[in-house]
Amino acid sequence: MRSLKPEFCRAGPCYASRVSHAPSLRNQGPPRHTLLVRVTHWITVVSFVALLITGVEILISHPRFYWGEVGNSGTPPLFRIPIPSSRATVPTGYGYVLPDQNGWSRYLHFEAAWALVLTGIVYVISGLWSRHFRKNLFPDPADRTWSAFRSVIAKHLRLAPPDETASRAYNVLQRVTYLLVIFVLFPLVIWTGLAMSPGFNAAVPWAVNCLGGRQSARTLHFFVSISLVLFLVIHVAMIFLSGFTTRMREMITGLAAASQERTIEDRT
Fold it and tell me: What domain count does the chain have?
């Protein structure tokens, strides 16, 4: 039987050490996110921010949208964004033009787009190979009901903090949203972006024609981009509501804060 009596060391008596009850960081089992998921996530973040900034600059050069194959300053638009343009030849109703940043913004836009495409290919191939989508994103049969969706939505509307189980796995609303973003919105924004290229139109004309033409592709590209921006805003808001520090730590290091159980190291 162990004794709690103090021992004598060189500098004096030795006592049983006490362990702090404060939360500590330790890896309990596999990481929350794999290394490849974390790396591709942050490359996607940087690429998307670059695409967003440069896309706004490109939009300013011609804030009018059309439907069909042809559209220019001399044709009536389908709709227009009520902002001044960076080109004097574009009628906007304003008596001034903004500085033209169309050159560098288009160059960086294309570079960021290819970075996003290559990163997405690596992520999708890895996710299919490792069954990441099947295990972590595809909803379970019990969650594929309207009641499960209503329950999650009601919890979000109440701003209720996630419990321990919810903090370690995606709920059904998150799973469906991520699947739509990965397999619908991102492929569609890439497809419509390529369809605006004259070279792509010449090489694969059917891929442009089925969208209604190059100007139709530009209009669709705009609305899909708005959907991705809306997803980004909600995604960031949910990170703050569920614990910004913990979520950022999980996506950077893969580890989460875990409460350390009390232990007593006895010495005889």
Answer: 1
Whether 63 shows a pLDDT value over 90: the answer reads yes
- CA 223 to CA 43: how far, in whole Å? 23
Encode 8-24: b = buried (16+ Cβ within 10 Å), e = exposed.
Answer: eeeeeeeeeeeeeeeee
For the stretch 211-221, pLDDT in tens is 999 999 999 99
**Closest by Cα among 32, 158, 56 to 108:** 56
In a domain, 226, yes or no: yes
Residue range(s) defining the domain that contains residue 234? 31-255
69-78 confidence digits (pLDDT tens)? 999 998 999 9
Q: CA 210 to CA 251: how far, in whole Å? A: 39
Residues 6+ apart with CB under 8 A from 259: 23
User: With the C-alpha atoms ordered 18, 22, 27, 28, is the resulting torsion angle positive or negative?
Assistant: positive
pTM: 0.79
